[in-house]
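Changelog entry: the GH10 domain-containing protein record was regenerated in this release. Current contents:
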Amino acid sequence: MKRLLALSFARRLFKPRTIQQHKHSQESKESMEQSPIVSVNDNFDSKESKESMEKSPMVTANNNFDSQGSKESGKETGSYAACNIILNHEFSDGLHSWHSNCCDAFVAPAGSGYHKGLAAENSCCYAVVTNRKECWQGLEQDITSKLSVGCTYTVSACVGASGTFQGSVEVLATLKLVSQNAETRYLFVSKKSASNECWEILEGSFSLSTMPDQVIFYLEGPPAGTDLLIKSVVISCPSSTACDSSGTSSVSTDDDNIIVNPQFDDGLNSWSGRGCKVALHDSMADGKITPLSGKSFASATERTQSWNGIQQDVTGRVKRKVAYDVTAVVRIYGNNVTSADLRSTLYVKAADNRERYIGIASVKATDKDWVTLQGKFLLNDSPSQVVVFLEGPPPGTDILINNLVIKHAAKAPPSTPPVIEDAGFGVNIITNTSLNDGTNGWFPLGNCTMSVQTGSPHIMPPMARDSLGAHEPLSGCYILVTGRTQNWMGPAQMISDKVKLYLTYQVSAWVKIGQSSGPQNVNVALGVDSQWVNGGQVEISDDRWHEIGGSFRIEKQATKVMVYIQGPAAGVDLMVAGLQIFPVDRRARFRHLKRQTAKIRKRDVMLKFSGSDSGSLVGTFVRVRQLENSFPFGAAISRTNMDNEDFNAFFVKNFNWSVFGNELKWYWTEAQKGNLNYKDADELLDFCTKNNIQVRGHCIFWEVIGTVQAWVQSLNKNDLMTAVQNRVTDLLTRYKGKFPHYDVNNEMMHGSFYQDRLGKDIRVNMFKTAHQLDPSPILFVNDYHVEDGCDTRSSPEKYIEHILDLQEHGAPIGGIGIQGHIDSPVGSIVCSALDKLGILGLPIWFTEVDVSSDNEYVRADDLEVMLREAYAHPAIEGIVLWGFWELFMSRTNAHLVNAEGDINEAGKRYLALKREWLSHSHGHIDEQGKFSFSGFHGSYEVEVITVSKKITKKFVVDKGDNALVISVDI
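Regenerated structure tokens:
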């Protein structure tokens, strides 16, 4: 299945600006991989203290400074709790959805004894905001999406304070209002005096007359050094229907078309030719071509280059960080071309004169009918010039356009979790698998002959056994298919009424072939109406039984679904035994992976307390908080995304590794011979270095011919060898010691440009030369479809053979890269590949993980499969996502964050897993002066509060089989 890519790159002599397709087993990747990127603002570091809460003109607030509800007696008495827009308002889920503002926070459990004065009243947990250096530091939550203009919201918070102060201190409720074209403003909502003695109720209200880009609610106020205590927060809208469960904002959006004269009612006003001429028509071709709508259409004619077309300058009408939908009605004419790819593209010139081209969409246009081209784009910066144009068909072919509309994209309705009744996990949907009833339920696809024979394996194939557990033995019967005159011929079965939408099905079988002249591919395929779906492949070159395993999922209703086994060349007999197709119980697998994860990613830790006061510490409360998991979680980024501060904030907060989508590749750094461009890579590397993020070097070379720039392809053997040497020398010398990893020659299992031109030794020499120039980085092989069973070219067995061959010839390979571009992942299949590759003893990284589904919940499930399998496997040492921001990924429906910054269900799942893999513990020091816990590898902070002082110590839990002992001096 082909997918569109919104692609951004600099225009050079080499211009592969076509819309990218996701690679499948039958085709290699196209020229330009694109990375994704994302951002969310959480922590707002106001470097200076605020004045007395200056009001914004867009907001009004009713402030009850000292309302009558002083002490809380039990739970909140507010009647609006059912409509509360605050998430996790009583901290029952820890600090989920809350963020500390330039200070620290934790949730104290009931009866912890942290706050002696409130111990008698404390019947539940509460948040403690500590290490406050300024009075404005506190606890905050983003409520932007929950607000509606014109509604009055009431605030009720149960608060307290703890410290050495005398009397009382003031706790304030504040709104932070962020607008991209105006100064950030702060709205004072209410305040309340609080003491060490009892909980107080802070109450107030506010309303918004216009909606800023972001609204942050937070509690603040006590002097520096005083801990702020928060037991609950309720913000509700009692008198308006605007307070609904969806929390949808009523912010209006501009629905105007930014294209001037979109249907040519004013002739060619505002339109021009891009390297060609444009003309206006009411008809063409002797009246055979007329407008689909309106009275006129335009043509781009006398085109001498594929990038020539019709254009309009939209500078000043396109806003940054706003997603736009693009719709055009187009066709082609002339030069005996009946169909061609027609693309919409943005030319963008930055304020520093840097130029780039952004692919918006592509459509197969014909000379017979008008077709609709649709796409979407977003600009991260505020460029000095933006031009939209149409391009693509061969020179001499006219581009015709009837209209063009570019509008602010409406937010897609949120996905709903698929409701699947009676999933039947682990139940085979294939009829008569055992063949005890002959070939009943089966039929031969094509003119071939089927018969039932005996002598096949009685055990379930290993990958299926890993999913199903204990299972009845197979019958030992198999289907023999003879008389095959085409490679697609084989046994088939209709399963239309048995396949359920959105369920992930695992495919498993034993297969064998008759006598053949060479290796043969065997494939379990599905015909889903007119679409071919790959259910798994295996290459066979002997007379043994082989396991074939794969998976599939159907997300749109189909009228006909047929499964069939095919592949060997005509005349080769095919044997199939024990075909199983069953829905996978992912939750059961996750339970197993959680246990496995605890074994390999956690370590027992003992804190030993000593010092002059150690004898009085028995029973003292201890809080341990993990600051960061040390496991590498990375994401791909591109230079253009660095202009989006929202993206930057999300990326820096949620990832500790990175990889550049294009900026380090040869076609980017030297698109024209001798003109080196390291500016983009330098800026990205500087950004990552400043934010303590390590970067994989991707890639020195790329073996697939479609990714090799034209000038390189045109070189003779000697000049190509010189160019290769110059490339590796320039790159490795320039960045010596700065990239801890390099993918040396990308996708050698799927391409052979350099090997074909320079001989087999060139691959080994690339590794050797890179190591000589910079011995510090780990040198990786990197390829795709290794982990999913759908591509015989890069099966784990083939990948192992490939790696061993390179090593035997002296290549200093230090790591194995598995890209992870996968559909409908099944844990046991992924794990099987990792187990096989693990025998090489090299670190394995998932280097380019992305999953795709139009349903965010299914996408989240797929992503969770990949992350849990990787994190639970001892051979995996890092995971890098191939992007996360909509419109900046190589696959559609793969993003974690929507174009304008909303985190979708897949993004929420990723963040939830990151939280799950942080260890927090609390308790009391025992009689031996010790406190023990088990924690994930990473950095920690322990805090102990005695009557006289507070002790804080940071430490690191690294890998190790024995318990880690940390001494804490009191």
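DSSP finds 13 helices and 47 strands in the chain.
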